[in-house]
Structures are given as C-alpha cells and as structure tokens.
Amino acid sequence: MKTEKYEFYHQSNIMQIGNLIDDLHSVHVHLLLLQRRYYRIYGKYASLSRILKHITKLKRTSKPHWNHLPSQMIQDVAIRIDLGYQAFFDNIEDRKLGKTNRKVGKPKIKPNHKYKSITFTQAGFKIEGNRLRINCLKKSFTFWKHREWTGNPIKKITLKRDNVGDYYLYLICEDCEPSEKLPLTGSEAGADFGSKTFLTLSDGIKIASPEFYKQSLNAIRSANKALSRKQYLSSGWFGAKRHLARVHKDIANRRRDWFFKLALRLVRKYDKIAIETLNLEGMKRLWGRKISDLAFGEFVLILRWTCAKYGKHC
Known about the structure:
Number of strands: 11
Oligomer: single chain
Strand order of the largest sheet: 1-7-6-2
Mean pLDDT: 88
Structural class: alpha+beta
Low-confidence stretches: none
Order of helices and strands: EHHHEEEEEEEEEHHHEHHH
Strand content: 15-25%
Helix content: 40-55%
Largest sheet: 4 strands, antiparallel
C-alpha cells in the first residue's frame, strides 16, 4: 500500500470538512461511553458486530441525524475503537508472558481539538483532477496536486485537520509503481547514532544535526509567552495557539526535509546500510529534549523507505 499526501487550498467552504470531523467526534464520544456502560452492566466489552448492530438501531431511534453521515465513516469510528481495545487486551497478555514492559492503556475519549481525521473507504467521494467531491456534503474541494499519484486503484482516503487549521487529503492506494533503482556502488556502511554527532558511519564520515528545535527556541518561548497571556478559550487565545502550532510545524517540516535529503545522499553512496538498534524511550529519559530534537526514529523510517524505493537495503 502507498500513501500520497496533498494539501487543500484555503477556500470558503473548507470549514465544512471541519464540521464533518466534529460530527464524527460526537459519534466517537457516544460509542466509547457506550462501551463503558456495557462493561459496568455485563463485566465485558461489546464486540464490534454488536456495536454495529446497535448503531443501526440508534439511527432509527435516538440518533436519526446520524443518517446524514456516511455509514462507512461511522463504521470506521467503531473499528478504530475496537482496534484500540484489541491492542489493550493483547498488551495485557504480552506483559503477562514477559514479551514487553510497555503498557498500553484503554481507548480514551479524545477532546474535540484532538480528533483530527475521518476516513472514506472506496465510496462517498469522487476525485476529478485536483478536486475532491464529498457526496454527503454535496460540495467539491480543491487541493494542491503537486504530483500525480501512481498507485491504482484508490483503496480509501483520509481527510485530516492539523493544529494550525490546515486540511490535508491522504490517498491510500495499491503500490503499482516500479522501483526507481539506482546504480549499485558496491559500498556498504554501518551507521551509529549519537547525541553529539547525529550520525557516524563506519568509513569515518561524521554528520552533525542542525538541531532545528534548538535553533527555534527563542521563537517557541515567545509564542508560549504570548499564549500564556491570553484569556483561556478567547479568540486571542485560539490565535496564539495556532501561531505556536505553526512554529512547531515549521520546525517539523524543516527537520523532515533535511532527513529526506540526507537519506537520499546515503542511498546514492551505499548499497547496504546497517543501523544500530536504539532504546529511544530510555534515551529520552536520560537526555530529554535533545533526543526528541534529533528524532532518530523518524530518520530511520525515512531511510528505510528511501532504500526500498531505490532498491537498496537497510
């Protein structure tokens, strides 16, 4: 499977996508409260099939307005919650068997501002050129089609709202694109991560991190101070909150851009790259913010993706 990401243009009707996300958040809250009530009465959690049957009943009785929402989207909310409970119970078994020390909690009710995405599965939408039509809204939305997607057919789409208030379209489709193989160089390297030097290769090359978060500390402090001076939940508070989110988004984008360029540079030079196994949680406890700024885990994911794309090994 392959995922393509596109940003929606700022347009007058874009808030209708936000309203749709908010409507699905109310479904999320109701289903989680339903699971809690079911557990109090019967001492166990309701199965996915039972929840889906109950949703059908609710549409006929106390929740007729849910009929205006795409049924597949409501089912997706129920599936997300069910997967969360499955992960919770699987984690309990794994900890009993000593397979992991990591603790996974039960699904919690997300506040409205943290519920950010909705998913369509092969129905309820239509894409023509750079326009997405959502059937339940009877509206079309324009997105920035900066590149053609190569996967076909489209399995599902996800609409996401970030903390800044921007909206994104994610296309999940079959990965039909042939590998863009780079010529082999015959070189191999081992990579060692460090807090002082970001990456040290086995042939002696050292690569330092720009530490984008550290560079932007003054901007972050200024934005945090401005937010703390605003009255909570006032219009000024929301504006300051968006400004702070925009600063963090800029840092993340610059870091991610540097990671992709560095990964491509390494893949062009080496046929095989060996990476040490890291205990990132332990490193964060020891060194805190610096490890989060270096973002070793994100770089490893990008490096592996780049190697797979160009026919190299990691």
